[in-house]
């Protein structure tokens, strides 16, 4: 491969030597020092620490990407090899910021991608914005990402783009789910004192106003500090108010505590829709038989009617390939990792050249059908943000263990509903 | 009224788990004067080891205790003899740093071996079984078992410390290591045994934690803090004090939670600070600081 480009390489070096001496050394810009013929994609992800479960599909996804991009990609009529530079955020936002600035200043990457919770996407995007490097992130509801970084809905950001669903979607899915069954419409909330819990429980932007408007009564004792070992105060309050629906956004160990104590103390709600805790198959498995009937929002599943713009595989095929390669069940972040690279590669292919501005412009003009649905940054609720479809699912016991079945699709009719939503059987 | 009784009962039962965590720490702190930063991580390590044995064999999680407890005890002895004894001395920093290193190593080893998935030990129906106490009051069977085990462990230790030659050696090594050595006690061996017992108890705590809820490789450090607080509240050298410390912490947390969920953990910390301010040596201290 190198023979083919040697001439080009030489010319480039001459140009660099002339222009670079004058400008490059005095005004070090990331693209000037990038190795010729190679595009570097920086990737920040919480591979270790409490958020590591989000990074489980990393190795598989990067392997798939390397396979798909083995022949390099064409940017502005010239073929480049693609190199991935991966950094661990250690589930820590300070570390995520450091890793990003290393990627930008030391590795001189052309573009940065990152995913998994505000603790990763926010510091990574902030560093990119600061250093003028194009950046694509996902897997954080857009409000905590956009407003959490002090975004202005009028002007937005210059360098950083984000795609995921938002609070309005999850509220819509949950309330539509609960509306399917006859209940007394009393909802008990389990919101921890963290960025998610505070956003969901926010009196203006969160669940409370929408629930009131839709005729639900909310029993919210307040924000608890996670990890919590004792939920009996919540359970007593829920029992007292005759709560039939329990919701929340809490880590699996907290939910396991709550759910076990609820059983011990005879609290039997009809519906339990808990985000985060029941999003991962392994966590659900660990709840044992009592996982049957729990419900959750679904950002992606093998039945989603989308396929990869890069490799052409369908949602079902991606899930199957992952299980075959790793022996693990599919999880929602799998497709979002994949889509992150889809969006980045698509933008690079459309960029006029490798100048950061050109890549940025290409990202801005993204209109791509990815494995998680259409991504279009021009149609978002605020600048720099694109929304992906969200539906509701319920864990149902099958012969093979628990399966997440789509039971609600009012906000994304393209995703087929597979079964009926049912009351938890005690 | 029943609500407050419920709060107190749940708090006391929570204290059982906290005391189990605290006992191992109290032991290594009491005998070696060594602070084991990796204490919580060793508990999580034991729990994952138990999961690794239970899942392929389909054993009952309680049966696995018979394997994992001696195993961790042996591991503790070897760890103390092989590594930790070399860090003990006038300077308190080396054991802190070495166990801090262990904490990081264990977390990452677990992550590599078991992945970041949350795991648990399933005991089926028992996990949610409860005994109704009339009115709206019910206590879980599992928390009761945990409390019972904590009391049994502490009673056993109390007997070991006060009525056996080994216990005398522990106390001697704790009170004056040099004089104990002059009397023919091999401190290195005694320390090894103390750490062995501490690890055996920590294994029980870890397994119960995995039965009670679920765990991930990064859960260890959060456990250390409560264990520490229970030890300090109870007072050094007093084993029953450790139980009381765990219960005070548990009750303070559940009372705080009842008032406002945000105050739960804070109330525990405040109780700890209050004890520290009024009785810096803890409520039932038997050993005095040198």
Instruction: Please tell me the CATH architecture of chain B by its name.
Output: Orthogonal Bundle
Structural class designation of chain A:
alpha/beta
Overall morphology of chain A: globular
Helix content of chain A: 25-40%
- Total count of strands of chain B: 2
Q: For the terminal residues of chain B, how far apart are their CA atoms?
A: 46 Å
CATH topology of the largest domain in chain A: Rossmann fold
Helical stretch tally of chain B: 11
What are the low-pLDDT stretches of chain A, counting only 5+ consecutive residues below 50? 1-8, 14-34
Describe the protein's architecture and organization.
The complex is a heterodimer of chains A (426) and B (290). Chain A has 426 residues and is an alpha/beta fold. In chain A, the strands form four sheets. In chain A, strands 2-3-1-4-5-6-14 form a seven-stranded mixed beta sheet, sandwiched between helices. Chain A is globular and about 65 Å long. Chain A is built from 15 helices and 16 strands. The longest helix of chain A has 23 residues. Chain B is mainly alpha-helical and 290 residues long. Chain B has one domain: Orthogonal Bundle (ABC transporter involved in vitamin B12 uptake, BtuC), CATH 1.10.3470. Chain B has a two-stranded antiparallel ribbon.
Which SSEs are present, and which pair or pack?
The complex is a heterodimer of chains A (426) and B (290).
Chain A: H1 2-24, H2 30-33, E1 38-45, H3 58-68, E2 73-75, E3 78-88, H4 93-105, E4 111-115, H5 118-131, E5 135-138, H6 142-146, E6 160-163, H7 167-179, E7 186-192, H8 195-200, H9 207-213, E8 217-224, H10 232-240, E9 245-250, H11 252-264, E10 271-276, H12 281-286, E11 295-298, H13 315-326, H14 333-350, H15 356-364, E12 367-370, E13 373-376, E14 385-386, E15 391-398, E16 401-408
Parallel strand pairs in A: 1-3, 1-4, 4-5, 5-6, 6-14, 7-8, 7-9, 9-10
Antiparallel strand pairs in A: 2-3, 11-15, 12-13, 15-16
Helix pairs in contact in A: 3-14, 4-5, 14-15
Chain B: H1 2-32, H2 39-57, H3 61-82, H4 93-114, E1 130-132, E2 138-140, H5 141-163, H6 165-175, H7 177-182, H8 187-212, H9 220-234, H10 239-259, H11 264-278
Antiparallel strand pairs in B: 1-2
Helix pairs in contact in B: 1-5, 1-8, 1-9, 1-10, 2-3, 2-4, 2-8, 2-9, 3-8, 5-6, 6-8, 9-10, 9-11, 10-11
């Amino acid at each position: 491969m190198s023979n083919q480009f040697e001439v080009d390489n030489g010319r480039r070096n001459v140009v660099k030597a002339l222009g670079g001496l004058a400008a490059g050394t005095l005004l070090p810009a990331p693209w000037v020092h990038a190795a010729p013929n190679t595009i570097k994609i920086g990737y920040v992800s919480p591979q270790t620490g409490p958020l590591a479960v989000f990074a489980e599909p990393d190795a598989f996804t990067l392997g798939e990407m390397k396979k798909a991009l083995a022949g390099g990609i064409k940017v502005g009529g010239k073929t480049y090899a693609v190199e991935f530079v991966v950094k661990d955020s250690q589930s820590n936002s300070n570390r995520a910021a450091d890793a990003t600035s290393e990627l930008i200043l030391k590795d001189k990457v052309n573009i940065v991608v990152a995913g998994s919770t505000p603790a990763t996407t926010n510091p990574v995007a902030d560093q990119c914005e600061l250093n003028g490097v194009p950046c694509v992130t996902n897997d954080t509801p857009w409000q905590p990402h956009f407003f959490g970084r002090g975004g202005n809905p009028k002007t937005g950001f210059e360098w950083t783009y984000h795609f995921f669903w938002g609070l309005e979607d999850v509220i819509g899915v949950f309330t539509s789910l609960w509306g399917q069954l006859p209940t007394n419409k009393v909802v008990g909330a389990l919101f921890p004192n963290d960025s998610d819990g505070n956003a969901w429980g926010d009196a203006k932007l969160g669940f409370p106003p929408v629930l009131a408007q839709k005729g639900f009564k909310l029993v919210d004792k307040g924000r608890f500090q996670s990890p919590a070992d004792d939920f009996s105060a919540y359970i007593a309050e829920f029992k007292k108010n005759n709560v039939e629906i329990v919701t929340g956004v809490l880590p699996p160990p907290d939910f396991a505590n709550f759910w076990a104590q609820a059983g011990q103390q005879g609290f039997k709600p009809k519906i339990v829709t808990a985000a985060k805790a029941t999003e991962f198959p392994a966590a659900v498995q660990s709840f044992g038989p009592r996982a049957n009937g729990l419900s959750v929002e679904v950002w992606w599943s093998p039945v989603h009617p989308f396929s990869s713009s890069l490799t052409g595989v369908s949602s079902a095929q991606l899930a199957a390939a992952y299980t075959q390669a790793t022996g693990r069940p599919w999880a929602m972040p799998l497709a979002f990792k994949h889509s992150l690279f889809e969006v980045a590669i698509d933008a690079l292919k459309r960029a006029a050249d490798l100048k950061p501005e050109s890549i940025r412009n290409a990202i801005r003009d993204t209109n791509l059908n990815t494995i998680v649905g259409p991504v279009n940054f021009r149609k978002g609720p605020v600048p720099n943000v694109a929304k992906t479809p969200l539906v509701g699912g319920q864990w149902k016991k099958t012969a093979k263990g628990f399966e997440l079945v789509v039971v609600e699709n009012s906000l994304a009719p393209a995703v087929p509903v597979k079964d009926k939503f049912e009351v938890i059987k005690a | 009224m029943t609500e407050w009784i419920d709060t107190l009962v749940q708090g006391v039962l929570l204290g059982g788990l906290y005391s189990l965590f605290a006992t191992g720490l109290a032991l290594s702190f009491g005998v070696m004067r060594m602070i084991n930063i990796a204490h919580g991580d060793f508990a999580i390590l034991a729990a994952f080891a138990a999961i690794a044995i239970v899942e392929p064999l389909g054993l009952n999680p309680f049966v696995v205790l018979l394997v994992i407890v001696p195993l961790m005890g042996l591991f503790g002895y070897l760890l103390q003899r092989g590594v930790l004894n070399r860090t003990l001395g006038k300077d308190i920093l080396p054991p802190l740093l070495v166990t801090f290193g262990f904490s990081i190593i264990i977390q990452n080893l677990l992550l590599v071996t078991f992945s970041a998935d949350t795991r648990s030990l399933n005991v089926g129906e028992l996990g949610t079984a409860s005994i109704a106490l009339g009115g709206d009051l019910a206590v879980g069977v599992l928390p009761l078992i945990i409390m019972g085990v904590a009391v049994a462990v502490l009673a056993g230790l109390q007997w070991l410390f006060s009525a056996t030659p080994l216990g005398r050696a522990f106390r001697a090594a704790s009170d004056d290591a040099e004089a104990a050595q002059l009397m023919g006690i091999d401190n290195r061996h005694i320390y090894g045994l103390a750490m062995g017992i501490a690890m055996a108890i920590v294994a029980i705590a870890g397994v119960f934690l995995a039965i009670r809820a679920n765990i991930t490789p990064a859960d260890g450090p959060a456990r250390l803090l409560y264990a520490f607080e229970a030890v300090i509240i109870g007072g050094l050298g007093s084993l029953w004090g450790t139980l009381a410390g765990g219960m005070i912490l548990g009750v303070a947390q559940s009372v705080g939670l009842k008032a406002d969920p945000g105050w739960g953990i804070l109330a525990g910390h405040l109780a700890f600070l209050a004890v520290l301010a009024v009785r810096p040596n803890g409520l039932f201290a038997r050993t005095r600081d040198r």
